[in-house]
Amino acid sequence: MTKRLSADDLQGPHRAFVTAPFRGAGLEMLQQVADVVLDPWIEHVPLRIWDGAKLAERVQDCSANILIVESDFVMGPEIMEVGLQIIGSCRGDPNNVDVAAATEHGIPVLFAPGRNADGVAEMTIALLFAVNRHLLEADADLRAGQVFKGDRLPYQRFRAWQLAGQTVGIIGLGAVGRAASWRFAGLGMNVLSFDPFNPAATHTNLEEMLPHCQVVSMHAAPTPDTLAMMGAQQFAAMPEGSVYLNSARAGLHDLQALLEALESQHLSGAGLDHFDGEQLPPGHGLLARTDVVLTPHIGGATYNTEVNHSMMIAADVAAILAGEMPQHCVNPEVL
Q: Which CA distances in Å does 137 have to 143, 162, 267, 297?
C-alpha cells in the first residue's frame, strides 16, 4: 500500500539539504520556507557525485527532511529510511531517483521539465552555424597562420548555402523542440516536425518528412521506441548535402551509420552534443573529421537552467508545505 504524506507530517521547522546548484528567486523562496544547507556538486573539484548511502549520512548529519539533488543518486534503502518528506530532482526526467521506493515511503518526488529548453535550443543553433559556416576550421586556419592553405583563399574554401530558405525537420516537439522551432523560423527556415505524440507536429511519419529536410535536428526523448531511430535508411532519405544535428541523446542515432553517411559525403556535416559515456573512444572516425562539430553535453550548461530549476522546485516545495498540490510531481498519489 502506498503511504501518503499527511498534514501532520509537514509541521515545521523544515531543513532542506541541497546538492544541486540553486540560485536566484528560487533559492530565496526556498529559504523562506526552510532552513537551507547548500552544497552544490558542481562547485566541487575533483568531481563529487554521491550515492544514496552517502546522501543518507549527510541528510542525517544536517537533520534535513527535504533533499534536492541534480546529479547525485537518490537510490537504495538507506536514503529512503532517514525521514525525508520531499525529494526534488532538478532534471527534466528524475531518473536519478528511485521513484518507486520513494512512493512506497510516501515521499513526493519533484522534477523540473523544460528547465534547460532555451539553453539546449541555443546550443542547437550554435552547432548549426558552426557546421554550416565551417567556423572551427576557419578559426583553426587563422590561428595556425594558414589562411591561404592549399593556395586557396578562405573565401573559396568556406563557401556555404545560407540557412534562410532551407527546410529543417525537428524530431521531437517537446519543450526543447518547440524552443528550437521558433529559433529556426527566425532564421528564415521552413520548419517541419515529427512527433507522434504532439498534434501540433507537421508529420506523423518520419520517412515522409526526411526527404524534404536540408537540416534534421534531434529533440526526442530516449525511449525503447526512439533508440537508433536515425540509422542508415534515415540518413539516406535526407537530401544530399544535408546537415544532421543532435543536441539530445546519442542513443537516438546509429553512430556508425552517421559516420558512413559523412564519409560518403551524402551528409555535408553534423553537430553532436552527446555521446555514450560523454565522449568518443580514442581514434574514432568522427574525431579527425572537419565537417563535424563535437561538444561534450553542454547544451543545458547555462546559469539560466539553474535559475529555472531552482524556481520550479522551490515553488513546488512551498506548495506542498502549504498543503497545496505541486505542479511538477512524478508521484502525486502520495499527497
A: 10, 18, 17, 21
